[in-house]
Amino acid sequence: MKRHGFRSKWLLGLAIFAACQGSDSEPFQLGPTDANVAGRFSLAAINSNPLPVPALQTTTEAWALTSDTLSIADNGQWTETTVYLVTQNADGSTSTRTSSIAGTYTIVDQRISFLQTSGGSATFTGSVQGSTLTVLYQGSHFTYVRT
User: Fold this and answer.
1) Domain span including residue 74
2) What residues contact residue 100 under an 8 Å CB cut-off, 6+ apart?
3) pLDDT in tens, 128-145
4) For 93, phi and psi rounded to 5 degrees?
5) Considering the entire predicted model, what is its pTM?
6) Cα distance between residue 21 and residue 16, in whole Å
7) Looking at the 3D structure of the chain, how many domains does it have?
8) SS3 of residue 3 by DSSP
9) Mind spelling out the 3-state secondary structure of 4-22?
10) Residues 73-83: pLDDT tens digits?
11) What are the tens digits of pLDDT across the range 82-125?
């Protein structure tokens, strides 16, 4: 259960960080999604800022998001795996940590409506256009590339 709470707090923290880093003066708008949304997508940028990005800072550790993969199946299911580089503030040593979440999706009004059902709870929207998946979450846009 501790892991689920961390993931939700981390998502909120990441969205806040990303929102502060955005340079767009107009709200980001999703285009209509392609009919075929299934595939594996790797996160390339958050609000046009490339990875890695700071994710969490505590008094003892600094977490950086180094990779994120979102897999969308054609049966209405999705999974996401995020990898972090964790640096100990005291001595600079590093380790890698991984977090996974999952859920379901539907396509409504030419947008993908994601519902997180494992690893916490959240809803967000997205759109696949060609080889790019764009996800909107709490005012930030996450750009993924099909792999």
Assistant:
1) 2-146
2) 79, 80, 81, 82, 118, 119
3) 999 999 999 988 999 999
4) -70, 155
5) 0.82
6) 9
7) 1
8) helix
9) HHHHHHHHHHHHHHHHHHC
10) 999 999 999 99
11) 999 999 999 999 999 999 999 999 999 999 999 999 999 999 99
